[in-house]
Amino acid sequence: MRTIPFLLSLVLPSLCLQLLVAGGAMYVEVFNRGVIPLAYSIRKRNSRTGLPSTYYDGIYLLITYFTKPESMDALQLRLNADDDVIRSTSFKVRQRKAV
Q1: Regarding beta strands 52-66 and 26-45, do their DSSP bridges make them parallel or antiparallel, or are they unpaired?
Q2: DSSP helix/strand/coil, 64
């Protein structure tokens, strides 16, 4: 069983913020919902040690920002490679056409 350390819940939002700003993002807002139990357990293998871990809780972050579309690929690669990130998703918000 793996639990998220409290210190990581404080450090991870600032690491995400630094990564986004370094990638050229503007107007970055981080909403930290804190450590919340997951709806189901997630098994993930650590890339450094090769040992599996089972997660029962996670840090939920909502990050909104403006950036160039090509920087999204670099961000997704970095988040997927990070062992501290269990799951992540990114999506583009499109502007509605005026009626």
Answers
A1: antiparallel
A2: strand
Number of domains in the chain: 1
Q: What is the tens place of the pLDDT at every residue in 44-64?
A: 877 777 788 888 888 888 888
Residue 59 counted as domain residue: yes
Helix (H, G, I), strand (E, B) or coil at 50: coil
Ranges of residues in the chain with a pLDDT under 70 are 1-9, 99
* Structure token digits, residue 39: 């709806």
pTM of the model: 0.63
Answer whether residue 77 is part of any domain: yes
Which amino acid appears at position 71 of this protein? S
Range of the domain at 13: 6-81
Residue 89 included in any domain:
no
User: What pLDDT does residue 62 have?
Assistant: 83
